[in-house]
Amino acid sequence: MPITEILQKNADFYPNDVSLVEINPKLEAQSKLTWREYSLIEPGTAESGRKELTWGDFDKKANRFANLLLSRGIKKGDRVAILLMNSLEWLPVYFGILKAGALAVPLNYRYTAEEIKYCLKLSDSSVLVFGPEFIGRVEEICDRIPDVKYTFYVGEDCPSFAESYDNLVNYCSSKAPEIKITDEDEAAVYFSSGTTGFPKAILHAHKSLVHAAKTEQAHHSQGRDDVFLCIPPLYHTGAKMHWFGSLVAGSKAVILKGTKPSWIIKTASEEKCTIIWLLVPWAQDILDSIEKGEIDLSEYTLSQWRLMHIGAQPVPPSLIKRWLNIFPHHQYDTNYGLSESIGPGCVHLGVENVHKVGAIGKAGYGWEVKIIDERGNTVEKGEVGELAVKGPGVMLCYYKDEKATNDVLHDGWLYTGDMAQEDEDGFIYLVDRKKDVIISGGENLYPVQIEDFLRKHDGIKDVAVIGLPDARLGEIAAAVIEAKEGVTLTEEDINDFCFDLPRYKRPRKLIFAEVPRNPTGKIEKPKLREIYCGESLVASQNEIKK
Fold this sequence. Notes:
Blueprint (H helix, E strand, L loop, with lengths): L2 H11 L4 E7 L24 E6 H17 L7 E5 L6 H10 L3 E4 L6 H10 L2 E6 L4 H7 L8 E4 L9 E2 H5 L16 E8 L5 E7 H15 L6 E4 L6 H13 L2 E5 L4 H10 L4 E4 L1 H12 L15 E5 L5 H10 L4 E8 L4 E6 L13 E2 L4 E5 L12 E6 L6 E2 L3 H7 E2 L2 E10 L5 E6 L4 E3 L2 E3 L1 H8 L5 E11 L3 E10 L7 H7 L11 E4 L12 H8 L4 H5 L5
Parallel strand pairs: 1-11, 3-4, 3-5, 5-6, 6-7, 10-11, 10-12, 12-13, 13-14, 26-27
Antiparallel strand pairs: 1-2, 8-9, 9-19, 14-15, 15-16, 17-18, 18-21, 20-21, 21-22, 23-24, 25-26
C-alpha cells in the first residue's frame, strides 16, 4: 500500500485533527545572512509564529497540487523537483507529486545555482517548485534549464519568470486524482555524492517509502497521542522517514525552524512533544545550556517526552550518559542508514539496548545485514569488513549511472562503503569508512568539492581535505594545504578566499604542510589521517576500537 493511501486514510478518519504544526522562532537582531551562510536549519525570514494544518486540509492540498500537475500534462513517471525550506507546504507538495504518479525530487536548499541546474538535468525533472529563498539562484539558471517546462513559486510576490503556486492550486480540485499507484512504481529521486563530488541521483520505488514508514513505526511505536518534533531539513531522507512514523499513526508532528537549545526545549514543552530526533551537536548544545544555567528545566513541562533518538553520525557514549543523567526517564535509540537505503532504520540500536551505546545496533525491521571481506564473503565475528544491508528499502539504482550502481548493488545487497565489526552479542560498530565523506554535525561534506574549490587559489600547489575528530560535531573538515614555492599563505588568506563557499563547507582547520601522493598520483589520505587525526571520539569510548 503506497504511503499516499495512508494519508488518505488519515484524512478520512481524522479530518479535523492537526497533522502538522510549523513553529518559526523570532529572529534575533543579527547581520544579514546570505544563503551561503545558512546553517543546517534556519528560521524563516517571515514573521515568527505558529501555523497548523489538519489531516483533511493536508490531503486536500496534496490533491490540488496533483491535479495542477496533471492539468499541465505531467504524466506518471515524470519528475518534479522540490526546492523549499522546511514549512507547512513542503509535505503537501511532496505528496501531491506522488498522488499524480510523478517522482518527487527533493533538493538541498544550500545547493548553488549550478548544482541545482546539474541535479535538475540529471534527474530529468520537468517541473521545479521553489520558495522565496531561491529566487536569485533559480533566476540565474532559468534560461539554461530547457527541459523544466513549469516553474512554480511558493510564496508572495511571484517573480516574473515563474508561476504562482498559491494562485494556481486554488482553482484545482481537492478530490484525489484517479491515478493507480503500486508499491513497485518509481516514487522519488534523492541525491548523494559520487567520487567526483557531484551528486548522484538515487532512484527509489514506492515500496521503499512505505517500508520506511513501517520500519519507523515498528522501532518507536508511535501512537495517536504521540507528538513528533521534526527539526532536520525535509529534503533529507532522515527527517522525512522518521516523520513517516507519525503518518502511520495519524499523529501530530511539529516542524521547528531552528536549532537553538532554548527553542527546542520551549517547543517540546508548549507542543507536548513526546518524540524528538536530534543530531549530536544539538543534543550537546542542549546539555551545555542546561549545565550552564541558560535553560531552567523547572520552567518547562517535559514529563511527556518519552524518546530521544539520534542519527546521521556516530554517537559518543559519554553524550548519552550525560543525557540520561538529566533525563533519566527517556528512552534512547540511534539509527543508521543511507539515502541509498531510504534513510535511517536499516540498522538501529533499539530502545532496550542503551547499555550498547556506541554501537549502531542490529538489523532493523525487515532488514538483513552482514559484514563482508573484499570478495563479498562474510567475515568472522569480531573481524573488520564492509557493512552490507538488504531489504525493501534498498534503492533501485543510481539513475543513469550503471557503473556506480553495479559497484554497490550485488544480488539485492547494498554495499555501504562503511567498515564495521560485530561484537560477541551481535551488535555492529562502525570503525571507519571506505569513502572519504566527512560527517560533520550530521551534514555530509565531500572533500573533493572543497579541494577543487581551494585549488583555484593562485598560491596553492596542492590540497587534501580530511575529517578530524571533534567533540561537538563528530568530525570537522581540515584542509592540508601545500603552498607554491616562494608563496607564503596565512589562515586569513584562505578564510577570505573561502568566503564564496557555503559556510558548512568551509574548512574549520587549516594545516600548512606537504600533501603526500603515492606513485600513481593519488593523495595518501590514510597517511594524513594517521598524522593528524588520532583516534575518533566515538571509537575511543567504545569497547571495540578502530
